[in-house]
Design a protein that fits this description.
The complex is a heterodimer of chains A (280) and B (339). Chain A is an alpha/beta fold and 280 residues long. Chain A has eight helices and eleven strands. The longest helix of chain A is centred in the last third of the chain and has 35 residues, at 238-272. With 339 residues, chain B is α/β, with parallel strands linked by helices. Chain B has helices at residues 10-15, 30-43, 78-95, 117-129, 157-166, 173-179, 198-207, 215-221, 226-280, 302-338; strands at 25-29, 49-57, 60-68, 102-108, 134-138, 150-155, 187-190, 192-195. The N and C termini of chain B lie far apart (56 Å). The chains are: A alpha/beta (280), B alpha/beta (339). Chains A and B meet through helix 1, strand 4, helix 2, helix 4 and helix 5 of A and helix 2, strand 3, helix 3, strand 8 and helix 7 of B.
């Protein structure tokens, strides 16, 4: 009698998604064929210590009409080969689809991807905004086996986090607007930064005041963070600080002078039409 | 959005006008920027390139997607490999309705200096197949200070035409002066705008962290300008060295030319005396020109000097920007101190 194997073992994986993947999925969804309900695609990434870091993706054409699913395997394999040439470290880790949750045909696609890599992860991104939110979920599958025969596939939801560090350093404000004219940051942006900083400080001092006055329930975690932030401020005497700022200003001014000197030389050379810097 | 039976082709509607309209702006899609950043940062310090895809509509060039080129140093048969890679990639992207119209390329740079001969030659080779192309230059190093170090660069038309006709390296000072091309007329920077589809904008809002200050803000507020100044100063030094080298080549050429002209004059004088003697003796005079004796000395290409000067100019501009920011911050700190 064949052994009946129930799915065991916890799905101790975490999926970490880079924002570039999500924006690519959005673009693929916007560019889908007419009448197509969802787009699917391959996820590429790096697996280390139980964390699947999804770093890249590409859309794969598929056909889902009338009870059958056809994935363009040649397209998938060709692109996987091409991507491997650019970054050999990234391997196929699973696949994505737009929409919320898993549907019946997903088992077949999951089956296909489990031949491409071990334990493929399935990430769904709800671009249709069904529940008024862009839900991002990740699943892994477990097989219910009877001997060699597979009876069913079970999708188990796993933790999924989005790494926003990339987005943060780019500036979310750039990505939020449909058209953004000002890409470069200059002196004006320093002003907004200072504004934000003082807003943060105000919030923190408001919180502290409220706790001290007993209006708000104290939270130890927040208290520790504030204490840590305050202790980070180095104690420098007024005299030393003055000295420091003056030194730094002088350094900067010296370099400014140097660079202006070179620029003057360049302007002079331009006027004279020579290939040499006249005075250096 | 989804394409219907009769696809609307914006490029064909406005395309006939695009030739006489100058390029005013480059519109990048948000995910293109993210892709470029990812590719360039992953391979830093190796400098990498990739293709830009999009549409050329009137005065704006829309970049709607891009893909990375594989690194060429790994295989010897790079040329055959690269072209088949491009063909395959384009076909795959077309299948998922991505614009498969090449509009240029992107590349990573060190310290934001892009003025190099390769950029000009690549530009010219792109221009053979497409009318208008753009090079997006990204500096992976500059991201740390909270700004977006992206530039869109093209060649100015007069210079591009001259370079195409004569070849970049055979352009001499005389030829460039005749065309009215000076150092500043080589590169042109086009302003960049960012575009996101409504869905992508919604995604960004959904992903936005709740904190009021994000990483980019803290990076912008950082007081220490010293590391950035240091690296820019060493770049300035390197540029100045290059200028001196260039100066040496030019003065060597000038000296060699002067020496040759002197020799030639002496030789001509001697030959004339000889000929006068021969004529007096009733002999046939020797020719007054001898092409074998004085080979023309090759003039060093003017473009090298121009590029070095342009680099120097950019480094100075960068330095001025950084120092101005540094001074602002110091002034701010002094203001805080007085409070």
């Amino acid at each position: 009698m064949a052994p009946f194997i129930l799915p065991v073992g916890s799905a101790a994986t975490t999926v970490r998604v880079q924002p570039v993947v999500l924006f690519n999925v959005c673009d693929a969804y916007v560019r889908r064929n007419e009448g197509q309900e969802r787009v699917i695609g391959t996820l590429l990434g790096v697996i280390s210590e139980g964390v699947i870091d999804v770093r890249n993706c590409y859309a794969v054409p598929h056909d889902e009409s009338s009870e059958r699913v056809a994935v363009d395997i040649t397209h998938h394999q060709l692109l996987a080969g091409l991507q491997a040439k650019v970054n050999p470290k990234e391997v196929v880790v699973g696949w994505y689809s737009t929409g919320d949750g898993v549907s019946g045909s997903d088992a077949l696609i999951q089956d296909f991807y489990s031949r491409e890599c071990q334990n493929p992860v399935h990430v769904t991104i709800d671009t249709t905004l069904q529940n008024q939110s862009l839900a991002i979920k990740a699943y892994v599958s477990r097989a219910l086996l009877l001997g060699e025969k597979q009876l069913a596939t079970e999708f188990v939801q796993v933790d999924c986090e989005v790494k926003t560090k990339d987005l943060e350093s780019l500036g979310v404000d750039l990505m939020e607007k449909e058209i953004c004219e000002k890409v470069q940051h200059d002196a004006d942006s320093l002003e907004t930064c200072i504004g934000q900083l003082s807003l943060c400080l105000e919030q923190a001092s408001d919180y502290v005041d409220q706790v001290v006055a007993g209006k708000r329930k104290p939270d130890q975690a927040i208290g520790r963070s504030i204490a840590e932030a305050v202790s980070q401020v180095p104690f420098i005497s007024k005299q030393n600080l003055e000295q420091l700022t003056n030194d730094s200003a002088q350094d900067v001014l010296l370099i400014m002078y140097l660079s202006n000197l070179v620029r003057t030389q360049l302007a002079l050379a331009d006027r004279l039409g020579t290939a040499a810097l006249p005075l250096l | 959005m989804a394409q219907g039976g009769a696809p609307i082709n914006f490029a064909s509607i406005t395309g006939n006008k695009s030739q006489d309209q100058p390029l005013r702006s480059v519109q990048l899609d948000g995910h293109v920027v993210l892709k470029i950043i990812k590719h360039c940062r992953e391979s830093y310090p190796t400098l990498v390139t990739g293709q830009l895809l999009g549409l050329d509509i009137g005065q704006t060039l829309e970049v709607t997607d891009c893909y990375a080129f594989p690194r060429t140093d790994e295989q010897d048969d790079g040329t055959i490999d690269a072209s088949s890679y491009q063909v395959d990639m384009m076909r795959c992207l077309r299948e998922v309705n991505i614009d498969n119209n090449t509009v240029g390329w992107y590349q990573s740079t060190k310290m934001g200096v892009y003025q190099a001969e390769e950029l000009i030659t690549t530009y010219l080779s792109y221009q053979e197949s497409i009318k208008r192309c753009i090079c997006i230059v990204y500096d992976p190093h500059g991201m740390a200070s909270g700004s977006l170090p992206l530039r869109a660069v093209t060649l100015k038309e007069t210079f591009a035409e001259a370079a195409k006709k004569e070849g970049v390296l055979s352009l001499t000072f005389e030829k460039l002066r005749a065309k009215g091309v000076s150092r500043k007329d080589i590169f042109e920077e086009i302003p960049i705008t960012l575009h996101n589809s409504p869905l992508a904008a919604a995604m960004a809002t959904a992903l936005e962290p709740e904190m009021t200050a994000v990483e980019a803000d803290t990076a912008r507020l950082s007081l220490s300008v010293a590391p950035k100044l240091e690296s820019n100063l060493s770049l300035l030094n390197a540029c100045l060295d290059d200028v001196f080298l260039e100066q040496q080549t030019v003065s060597q050429y000038a000296r060699a030319l002067a020496w040759q002209q002197q020799q030639q004059a002496q030789w001509l004088q001697r030959r004339r005396q000889e000929n006068a003697g021969r004529r007096a003796n009733g002999e046939e005079p020797l020719p007054e020109e001898d092409p074998n004796q004085f080979k023309p000395i090759k003039e060093p290409p003017a473009i090298d000097g121009f590029l070095v000067f342009n680099q120097l100019n950019q480094v100075c501009n960068q330095l001025n920007g950084i120092t101005a920011q540094g001074l602002q911050k110091v002034a701010l700190l002094q203001g805080f101190q007085r409070l």
